[in-house]
């Protein structure tokens, strides 16, 4: 039996695959060596429940204690030097050879030099560098190693340097030996033996214990509210060290990873389930799911990086970036839900997760609330400031609760909060990048597109002034209606401005641009005329793509007539050709149907505004009748069957249209004419 998978089933399988892929990536990003879940500082209260030892572990000495003991042990260390016994003989023979070559040398000089050389080399000659180093470190004794590996103790004060050896030789025979350059023959016979010295050091240091006692399984360590004393700090730090050592075992790591997979899977499932149930428009787009998943992975990755680095605070990560960006492209509820899920996931890998969750959820709420509609760059800076203030206030509150003394607040922790808030300013750049990569559209872009002084809008107004005025009126009607039913008013406003842009190509064929001139379509047959009118949709799509308008705006152009008919020419054809069945396709727009609230509102506003211009008398009854009949006719034709709009929404839209059209075409005051004879009398006076 051949398995057949439909395109919809394939899409669903891809989404499920993405769901598992995101879970695995997040778990893989979790740091494996920083999972000790308790945060503690010396001198501060313990903010967790009673802790008892779950296994035996040693209490490790602090680095300071170990260094003190090492320094004390090394105070008795004496370095080792090799004694070269051949140097004294070779140096003296070399001296004698050179003296005989240069002439006769008195016997008493030779005898004196030999005695001095033997005595000085017996004490030992060391380089000036090593002599100074021994004096500096306070060493009074060294060990000399003879060629037979027998070592003997040598007092540092008994050693000679080449300079002091020369002075000793020439002390009583300065004039007699002035002609001899003895410096050439005085060579150090002691050389530092690094291998033996290091072995001796290691032997001394290996006796130093790194621990100072044990904590037994079940032993009480600390309870909530107790101050972390220096001793308790060492105990807790020892527990952390042992905990991380134990985690390195394969079996333990596997169990931990399974636990992480299950809990991350549950949290990611909740997020995907929320999108599936409450945001089907987001769920239907695979690129939207990839975009949101990428944001979650990015925040988790940045947090893992700071934890892995060790020198950076994870509070430097701009956690509010996720709700801000999701809010800009989608909605507040999705932004806050996604933020909470992400924070719960990250709480698995940070210390003091309770404080972290409270801080970040507060910040997420502030971020979403302060960015209801991001239409200006300054709003991002304001939000960054609000977030920093929120961090500061909540953190200070925690510090006051745990410390009870303002002088003990760790003010340095405010720096990561400031850095995180500053990073949020880069959201503007990220929003632009994500728009281009994922085909999304932000409020900022929509505001830029509604600028009627842009090149495209100026060309539109110049080429088709009547159509341009029509789009402005449709934009106003659509915006007000969208506000009333909770749709995206900025999106529908922008879509309305561009929906008829295709009429720029042949503006003369549309009555609003003819200025009383003869209609060129009247000279054509009904099929040709209908084809020209219908073609303005395709022309609009081509112009929009050439102008690089977002796909969401092009969707308004594509759907604003749905699959309705060019009724003027369709009805005219039937009236002129009784009994002849018209070709429906020639007179029908190609669609598709409106598939969002915003595109449905535009379709209603477009036809209502056009028909309202045909009224000769504007009364409440006429306006109400034309709005009701127009929209009811569209419903009867099935134009809104793919749009998520309710009958209540439709009734609200109708009422908005009626009020707006009445305000546009209200009766105006007729100004009285000034009588001519009164004017003449005034002139004479």
Task: Describe this entry's structure for a reader.
With 685 residues, the protein is mainly α. The chain is 61% helix and 5% strand. It has a 4-stranded mixed beta sheet with strand order 5-4-3-6. A hairpin with a 5-residue loop joins β4 (141-145) and β5 (151-155). α11 (286-309) runs parallel beside α13 (332-346). It is elongated, with a radius of gyration of 45 Å.
Q: Could you list some keywords that capture this structure?
A:
685 residues; mainly alpha; Hypothetical protein af1432; 4-stranded mixed beta sheet; two-stranded antiparallel ribbon
Task: Summarize, please.
With 685 residues, the chain is mainly α. Helix content is 61%, strand content 5%.
Helix/strand/pairing category: mainly alpha
Note poorly predicted spans: none
Biggest sheet: strand arrangement: 5-4-3-6
Strand content: under 5%
- Rg is 45 Å
Mean pLDDT: 86
- Envelope shape: elongated
Main sheet properties? 4 strands, mixed
- In helices, the fraction of residues equals 55-70%
Report how far apart the termini are. Answer: 109 Å
The number of helices is 29
Total DSSP E strands: 8
Domains, number: 3
